[in-house]
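Researcher: Here's the sequence for the chain we discussed earlier.
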Amino acid sequence: MYYDLIIHVDDNDRGRLNLAFNNVANYRAGLPGETFRVVLVANGPAVQLFTRENEALAERAKGLMAEGLSIKLCNNALKAFNVSAADLWEGCEVVPAGVVEIVKLQREGFAYLRP
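Model: Thanks. This is the structure I predict for it:
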């Protein structure tokens, strides 16, 4: 059985991103011994949360990324909100379009969650 999971965040809400991080941690804890991938895809206004000025969120993400979380940010949204790649947290990947990335991952068998 596959347990790969997409977590989708699309609003500029620290509380919702923290909830997404809680979901990642709980998901990992709930599947001991299983092999799976968890990808957080952010688009729209949410990309503004992934900048270096949000240190507390960045520290939390760093720990989750060390445990295998991938964070993918929509380039279209980064441009729309004037967020530079240089401002992003280390380890985040920029993808051309967040919605397209979600569809690609779903076609690979990932389950979808929007906290």
